Amino acid sequence: MERPDPLKEDFTVKRVALLGSTGSIGTQALDVVRAYPDRLKVTAFAALKSVDKLEAQIREFNPLIAVLYDEDAAKELKLKVKDLPVKVLSGMDGLIAAASMEESDILLTAVVGMIGIRPTIAGINAGKDIALANKETLVTAGHIIMPLAKEKGVRILPVDSEHSAIFQSLQGTPGGSLEKIWLTCSGGPFRGKKRDELKNVKPEDALKHPNWSMGKKITIDSATLVNKGLEVMEAAWLFDVPATDINVLVHPQSIIHSMVQFKDGAVIGELGLPDMKLPIQYALFYPSRLKMDTPRADFYDIAKLSFERADTETFTGLKLAFDAAGTGGSMPVVFNAANEKAVSLFLDRKISFLQIAEIINDCMDAHRVKPAPSLEEILEAEKETCEHIASMVFKEN
C-alpha cells in the first residue's frame, strides 16, 4: 500500500465526536467546523447539563447522538428535540457510547475533570484518534492511556496550546533527539505579585486572564499556576520525558506557545497570536494545515518578547505539581482532585485564593501513594481526597 504523503491535503470528510461541546474549547471547535462544513461532520455531542445550549447545537449540526451527563437534563433535552432523529443519552454510559460510536473517526474530548478518563479509554479501544483537551486524563491516568494508545495504533493529538506547540515543533525530528522542553506561561493575572498581595484576592480578580479566554476552572488554575503544573505532568506523558526536563518559562506576551530544545542545542518553537482555534484545527486536520481567517502576528508591532522564571515561592501550587510528578503513582491524582475541589470552594467564596495550594499540600501529605494505580484505584484516590477535604476545617488567612 502506498504511504500517505503528509504534505498532501486529505479531502475526505472527518467525523468528529465532541465531548464538552458547550464549554470554551467545544464552542471554539464548532467555529472550526463552521469554517469547514465540507470537511468536518459532528456525529456526537456531549455536555454536563446545558439543555438549551445543546439543543441549539443539535439543531444546527444534526448529530446522531447527544449526551447530557445529568439524567434530569437529558430527559428535558429528549422532549425538546423529539422532532429530530437524534438519540439522547445520559450519564457515563452515554459518554462512553458517544466516544466509541462507529460513525466517528476522531474523538475530541474537552470535558473538564477526571470524568474524561473512561470515555477516552473507550474511544481508544474503539480505534479512534484522540484530540485531547482534557488535562486530567493524562495527569491521572497517563500510565494507562499512552500504552493503550500505542497498542491500538491510535494517535493522541494535543489540543492544549502549549502541548500543540511542542507537538508541532517536534514534527520531522528523529526520536531521541529531544533534550528539554520550554513550557511557556503568561503568568496569569497576578504575575509579579507576592503572597501578601494575594491574601484578599476575589474570584472576579482571578478570572481576569490577560491573554486567553477560557472556562472558569482553567482560568483560576492559570492564576495559581496550577494549570502549568498540570501541563508539566501532561507533557511528560505526551512526549516521554521526565518532568525534570521540562522548564516553565513565564512569557507575558503569549506569542511563543512553547519550545523544544534538542541535543545539539537548537531550539524550535511555535509562535502566533493567542487563539485556541489554531491548535483545535491542527489536531482535527493533522497533518494538514488549512487556512484560518484570524489576525496574524505582526512582529514589527510586537517588537519585544520577554521571559521570566516562574515564582514558585509565591505560586506554590506549581512546586507541588513538580513534587507530585516526581513522586508519581497515585500522587498526581491527589494533586488534581484536591485542586479541582479547592478551586470549586474558592469560586463559591468558601476559601481564600492562597488556601487552594494549602489544601493541595495537605491532601498530598495525607496520601499513601499507590505506585501504578488501576482505573478503580485512581477513582478511589479521587474519592478519598474529596472526603479528606470535606473533613477539613477552613480558617481565614
Shape: globular
| Helical residue percent band | 40-55%
Note the quaternary state here: single chain
First-residue to last-residue Cα separation: 66 Å
CATH topology name of the largest domain, in short, is: Rossmann fold
Q: What share of the residues does DSSP label as strand, in percent?
A: 15-25%
Number of domains: 2
Widest β-sheet, arrangement of strands: 4-3-2-1-5-6-7
Number of helices: 16
- CATH homologous superfamily label of the largest domain: NAD(P)-binding Rossmann-like Domain
Number of strands: 12
Enumerate the spans where pLDDT stays under 50 for 5 or more consecutive residues: none
- SS class: alpha/beta
Give the second-level CATH assignment, the architecture of the largest domain.
3-Layer(aba) Sandwich
Major beta sheet, specifics?
A: 7 strands, parallel
Blueprint (SSEs and pairs):
Layout: E1 14-19, H1 24-35, E2 40-47, H2 51-61, E3 65-68, H3 71-80, E4 87-90, H4 91-100, E5 106-109, H5 117-125, E6 129-132, H6 135-152, E7 156-158, H7 161-169, E8 178-185, H8 203-206, H9 216-224, H10 226-238, E9 246-250, E10 256-262, E11 267-271, H11 277-285, H12 299-302, E12 308-309, H13 316-327, H14 331-347, H15 355-366, H16 375-390
Parallel strand pairs: 1-2, 1-5, 2-3, 3-4, 5-6, 6-7, 8-9
Antiparallel strand pairs: 8-10, 9-12, 10-11
